[in-house]
Every structure is written in C-alpha cells, then in structure tokens.
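can u do me a favor
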C-alpha cells in the first residue's frame, strides 16, 4: 500500500511547472496521488478519531494537568484534544510522505502537513477555551464528577479559567506567520515578467496585519485583563488591537518597501503617533466602569495599553534594523521607536511596582533579592541594544551604493533619532546610560517628590494597614476589631510595612524628621560625579585623570552603608562603584602599556 516510489530525475512522471510567483513546483506522481489522498483524508482521520476516547483524551488530561485523580478532576478542553490530533496528523503525514516519496514530490501535502503540525502544537500548548456563552463545547468545562459543581470551590476551580481564551490570539498570529512564509499571505509583491501588477498585495497585507497584530494584542490583553469587567476589557482590547494593527502594517511596509518609497512608512508611523493619544483616551474610558482595577495594576487599562504599544514599536524597530539596505532616515525612525518602547516599558514597570517593588495592593515583589522595578530596569535596558548609530564605515558603505540610495542619504528627516556617536565599540552605552538615568530619577523622586500633593503615598504603618484592610476596621464604641488588631500587629513586622517605613523615612514629604531625607540626598549627590564620568566614558571614551577617579569613586560607599531606605539609590551606587573601579583599572593598564619600552 505504501511501497516507496522512486522517480527518475528526468521523465514524464516528475513534472515541474512554474507558478505565478516564478517558483518551480514539483507535482505529485499521478499514480500516488490517489493513495496519498486516501491516506490523508480517510485512513489517518479514522485511526485518530478511534484513538481519541481511549488514548488521546486521557493522555491530554494527564499532560495538561486536568487529571489529578482528585474530586475536582475535569475533562480537558476540546481545543486541547483537537490540537493534539492535528499535531499527530501532521507528523504522521510528514513521515508518510518522506517514506512514500523518497525522491521528492508532494510539496503541497508537505506544506499542509507542516502547517497542521505547528498549528496543532500551538493549540495544544495554548489550550484556548471558547467563551462561556458558546454552549456547544460547554460540556468540556464540566467535572467528571457532577457533584463537584455543587460547592462554590468546585465551581470556581472548574470555571476560573477564562484567561486561556487569549490563546486564540497567539494561534492567529502563528497561523498568519506560517501563511506568510508558505505563500498564501506572501507579503512581497509577486512580479511576473510582462504580467500585470500584483493587485492583491494590499489585501494580503491587511489580512496578515489583522491576524498577526490583532492576535498578539488579543493574547496580551486577555492575559492581563481576563478577570476584569467585560466592558473595561472590551474597550481596552479595541484600542490595543487598533494600535497593534497600525504597528504591523508599518512593520510590513518598512521591511519590504524600497528606500525610494520609504515616505509611505514615515506616513504610517505618523498616523500611529497621532492615533496613540486618541486610542489612549479611548482606553481610559474603562476607568469609569464600575469595579475596574488600578490603571497600573494587574488588569489595569493603562499598563495593558502601554505594553501593547511597546511591543508594537519594538517589533517595528527590529524589523527596520533587519533590512538589507538602510539609510539615516530608516535608522533614525527605528531608533525613535526603540526608545519609545523602552520609555513605555519603564512607565509600566515603575507605575506598577514603584521605587521599591511595592505595588498598589501593597505587595512587595522581589526578584533575585532586588525589587521588581530595579530588576526590570536592568532587563529592559537590553531593548536599547537594538539602537543603531551612524558610524563612518556605514556612511562610506552607503556612498558605494546606487544613485537612489546616495541621494536618499543626503536627505534627513525630522521624524527620527540619529545617533552619530554610537558605534559598535560603544553599543552598550545606551543601556548603561538608561540604567543610571532611571535609577537616579527614581531615587530623586523618592527623596523629593514622593508623598507630596500630587504623588500621594503611605507615611506610616497605620496608613499601609488602612490601605489593605480599609478604614472601616472599627466596631461600636470606637474600639478596633480584635481580628484587625491582631492582623495589624502581625503586619508591623511584615515586608510591606518595612519597605513602606524605609521609604517614608527617606523623603522630605513623608519623614517625621529631616535627618533621613538629608542623609539620602547627600548619598545621591555623592554618586553623581562618578556616574557622570562612567556614562561620559562609555559614549565618548574620554579619560579622566586617575587621581580624580581615585578621589570620587569611593564616595559611592557612603550610600551603600548609610542609605538603606531607597533600593534604587543603593543599586545605582553599586553601579557607580563597580564601573568606576573598572574604568580606573583600565586606565592604569593603558598608561602602563604606553610607558613600556621595547
């Protein structure tokens, strides 16, 4: 039945035809087409459907964790089982085609099999669920034991899975990418010698942007706001999808258009910039929805909106950097979008976790012993490695190119960020500068602004306690409830209260005496000289006298020892001390080598 068919390289059985896009297509041998069709659409589906209730369904339950042997065991979602079936179908088809046609052929079936294999993996991993109002597959969410639904705990365990509906967005983006790679949604213009112009290019690009951009936005929004009010989630999702759609269109045009037509990319980016505040105000309408979360908290509209915009702009900057032919305009536009994405990430990070990792719910988040905001500052600095400068070698390389590219290089654009001093040797300078600037600004905010009229903050453990338990924790006669009093005594020694107390004693607006704020302000001023020398040396390579570095670098020890209230201040002091010592070491080694005699 599946005996391998060996085909000669030249003959009438193996035919090659030219498609519309100019590629060569190898047709399937006529004698084997019927066998492949029967195996793919009859034999293999029957085998898989037979194994679903006895093998695949229990296997998927074990893999996905739904089957635990307990009282609240439930059946896996139908989408998970479908993903596993699609994966096995694609894998079996690829194995069969490689065995049955060892000399080639069946390219269409191979693409369909590979697409089914990859998409099946995506569906099985993401495990997206259908909405609750779609009653066709509602039985997949029920428990194997129907009495488990009688308790509120069982109902919560079985139905509290709404966030996984965002997996459909991830699958949509994956499908769009595969269709663009395999050909149906090809994003490059299909040119034929002497033929008509490709009239479906715009349609394919729009379909890809909707599937990819809106799919990614849907996934991010649902992962962030799945437990929020439906209306708030709907408004924010529409705004995020619109921004992601425009960002995807700009990325496709920015990668495939020639430099002569790059003005169209600039226009799309300007449209995106105008739409950013418009859809931002649209998403802000969700704040008026009853029961909406804090705008920077988990499920907040502003944090979700800014994160989607940061993802879109960073992807656009990476796409422009990946172009084969670039000029100062494309580099400037990519740099501007890259910096914008970094600013958006920093806004979300410090808006949610604050200076010391203390979020709006007064929960402290630490990663490797550092507050989440400080750790995220180092992690987000990697984004700036995608910046690209106008080095002398690239300028000379552009002069060798064609006339169109040379004329384009002479024209500059005001809508961009050109970094003339950034080269391959100092590629780390933007990241280092961003870390220093953010930590210094965060420390200055904690000392000078935190707790004033605009930036309100807890000033004592009683404020923190009231923020967590509310102000209604008193009973009749003004006596505080015993349970609340016990919780308050316990929380005095908790991490949240300790962090809040240290921050309160470090700022002018929250401290009860001036000793703490003045001490931290002196520590911040002690770090500035060495940080300036470090940042200046990373950009320009300018060397400072060794005596000056020896005098100023040890000043960073002062905030490390005495300024314990602001974590960002201690971290930036450690950065200044480490890089200052390295700079002093390199300068002394350089001076020693220059004084050596051969």
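np, heres the sequence
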């Amino acid at each position: 039945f599946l005996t391998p068919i060996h085909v000669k390289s030249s003959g009438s059985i193996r035919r090659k035809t030219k498609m519309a896009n100019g590629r060569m297509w190898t047709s399937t041998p006529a004698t084997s087409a019927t066998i492949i069709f029967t195996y793919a659409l009859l034999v293999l589906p029957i085998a898989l459907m037979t194994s679903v209730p006895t093998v695949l369904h229990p296997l998927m339950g074990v893999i996905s964790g739904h089957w635990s042997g307990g009282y609240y065991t439930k059946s896996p979602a139908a989408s998970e089982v479908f993903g596993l079936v699609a994966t096995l179908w694609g894998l079996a088809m690829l194995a069969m085609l490689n065995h049955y046609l060892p000399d080639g052929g069946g390219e269409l079936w191979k693409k369909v099999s590979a697409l089914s294999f990859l998409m099946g993996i995506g569906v099985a991993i993401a495990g997206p669920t259908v909405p609750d109002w779609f009653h066709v597959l509602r039985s997949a969410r029920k428990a194997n034991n129907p009495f488990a639904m009688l308790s509120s705990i069982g109902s919560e365990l079985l139905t509290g899975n709404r966030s996984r509906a965002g997996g459909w967005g991830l699958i949509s983006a994956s499908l769009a990418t595969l269709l663009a790679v395999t050909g149906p949604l090809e994003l490059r213009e299909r040119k034929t010698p002497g033929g008509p112009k490709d009239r479906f290019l715009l349609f394919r690009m729009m379909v890809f942007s909707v599937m990819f951009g809106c799919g990614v936005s849907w996934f991010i929004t649902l992962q962030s706001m799945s437990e929020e009010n439906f209306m708030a989630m709907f408004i924010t999702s529409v705004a995020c999808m619109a921004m992601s759609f425009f960002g995807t269109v700009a990325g496709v045009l920015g990668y495939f258009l020639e430099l002569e037509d790059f003005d169209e990319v600039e226009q799309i980016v300007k449209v995106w910039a105008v739409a950013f505040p418009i859809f931002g105000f649209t998403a802000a309408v969700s704040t008026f929805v009853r029961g909406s979360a804090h705008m920077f908290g988990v499920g907040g509209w502003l944090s979700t909106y800014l994160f989607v915009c940061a993802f879109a702009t960073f992807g656009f900057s990476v796409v422009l950097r990946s172009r084969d032919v670039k000029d100062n305009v494309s580099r400037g536009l990519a740099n501007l979008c890259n910096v914008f994405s970094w600013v958006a990430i920093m806004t979300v990070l410090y808006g949610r976790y604050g200076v010391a990792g203390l979020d709006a719910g007064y929960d402290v988040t630490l990663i490797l012993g550092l507050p989440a905001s400080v750790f995220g500052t180092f992690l987000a600095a990697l984004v700036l490695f995608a910046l690209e400068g106008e080095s002398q070698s690239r300028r000379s390389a552009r002069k060798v190119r064609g006339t169109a590219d040379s004329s384009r290089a002479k024209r500059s654009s005001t809508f961009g960020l050109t970094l003339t001093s950034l080269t391959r040797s100092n590629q780390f300078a933007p990241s280092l500068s961003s870390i220093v600037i953010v930590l210094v600004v965060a420390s200055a905010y904690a000392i000078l602004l935190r707790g004033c009229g605009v930036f309100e903050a807890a000033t004592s453990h009683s404020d923190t306690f009231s923020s967590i338990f509310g102000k209604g924790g008193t009973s009749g006669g003004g006596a505080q409830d015993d349970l609340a009093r016990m919780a308050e005594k316990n929380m005095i020694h908790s991490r949240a209260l300790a962090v809040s107390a240290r921050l309160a004693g470090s700022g002018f607006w929250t401290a009860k005496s001036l000793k703490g704020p003045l001490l931290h302000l002196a520590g911040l001023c002690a770090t500035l000289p060495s940080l300036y020398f470090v940042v200046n040396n990373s950009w320009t390579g300018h060397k400072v006298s060794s005596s000056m570095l020896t005098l100023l670098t040890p000043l960073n020890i002062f905030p490390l020892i005495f300024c314990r209230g602001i974590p960002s201040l201690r971290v930036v002091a450690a950065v200044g001390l480490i890089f200052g010592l390295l700079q002093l070491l390199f300068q002394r080694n350089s001076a020693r080598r220059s004084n050596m005699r051969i």
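The beta strands are 16-18, 24-26, 366-367, 370-371. hope that helps!!
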